């Protein structure tokens, strides 16, 4: 299985497309729907679902377009059930004003940790709140990758000054759910370059001494 990082939208949020034999999972399509659709068509892969690590506006901008184009469904944690429809909660009202972003409700609400299987893809759903109340990370063991959203970055961690953010909760999430993964696990971050668990354990200044 392979995945591609495609920065999209106003904040160049990393969208990831995990694909295998023509089938794909799209993680966090933050914007730039025509660009994403063009890539999918060029690679001759068809999405089977959209996974959202959380519902901030810069992660959801292309959700409705991709969902409608490919007739697929969206997975989101239940703690952010109404954020797709609410510009105040998803942050677009504050950051984008008249250009606020909304999307239709998710078809599937993640209620707990556990296995999530879609087509030929299987993920471990890890609850990693702190950046936002419903932040989750999707661990894909087959490719040794965790799609961490805005929880953990290369040399940094997610901001916690937005609605429902909690700094101590985020540190606990990272320590208990992400740093316990195999050290060679690739961390597919929501912004910036990818990293791995070992590198962040050894060098991330926000995690030192925690």
From TrEMBL:
Entries under InterPro entries matching the protein: MBL_Glyoxalase_II, Metallo-B-lactamas, RibonucZ/Hydroxyglut_hydro
Cofactor: Zn(2+)
Gene3D superfamilies: Ribonuclease Z/Hydroxyacylglutathione hydrolase-like
Pfam families: Lactamase_B
Keyword vocabulary terms for this entry: Hydrolase, Metal-binding, Zinc
Domain Metallo-beta-lactamase, residue spans: 12-191
UniProt cross-references to SUPFAM superfamilies, sorted A to Z: Metallo-hydrolase/oxidoreductase
SMART domains hit by this protein: Lactamase_B
Protein name in UniProt: MBL fold metallo-hydrolase
Species for this entry: Aliibacillus thermotolerans
Organismal lineage: Bacteria, Bacillati, Bacillota, Bacilli, Bacillales
């Amino acid at each position: 299985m392979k995945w591609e990082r495609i920065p999209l939208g106003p904040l160049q949020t990393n969208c990831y497309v995990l694909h295998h034999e023509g089938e794909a999972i799209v993680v966090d399509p933050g914007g730039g729907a025509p660009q994403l659709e063009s890539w999918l068509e060029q690679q001759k892969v068809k999405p089977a679902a959209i996974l959202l690590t959380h519902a901030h506006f810069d992660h959801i901008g292309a959700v409705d377009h991709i969902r409608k184009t490919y007739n697929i469904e969206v997975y989101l944690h239940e703690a952010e059930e109404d954020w797709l429809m609410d510009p105040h909660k998803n942050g677009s009202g504050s950051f984008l004003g008249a250009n606020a972003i909304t999307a239709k409700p998710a078809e599937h609400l993640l209620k707990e940790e556990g296995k999530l299987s879609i087509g030929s893809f299987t993920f471990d759903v890890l609850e990693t709140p702190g950046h936002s109340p419903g932040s989750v990370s999707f661990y894909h063991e087959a490719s040794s990758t965790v799609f961490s959203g805005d929880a953990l970055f290369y040399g940094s961690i997610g901001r916690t000054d937005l609605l429902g953010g909690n700094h101590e909760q985020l540190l606990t999430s990272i320590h208990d759910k992400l740093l316990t993964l195999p050290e060679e696990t690739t961390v597919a971050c929501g912004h910036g370059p990818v990293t791995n668990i070992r590198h962040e354990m050894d060098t991330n200044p926000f995690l030192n001494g925690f």
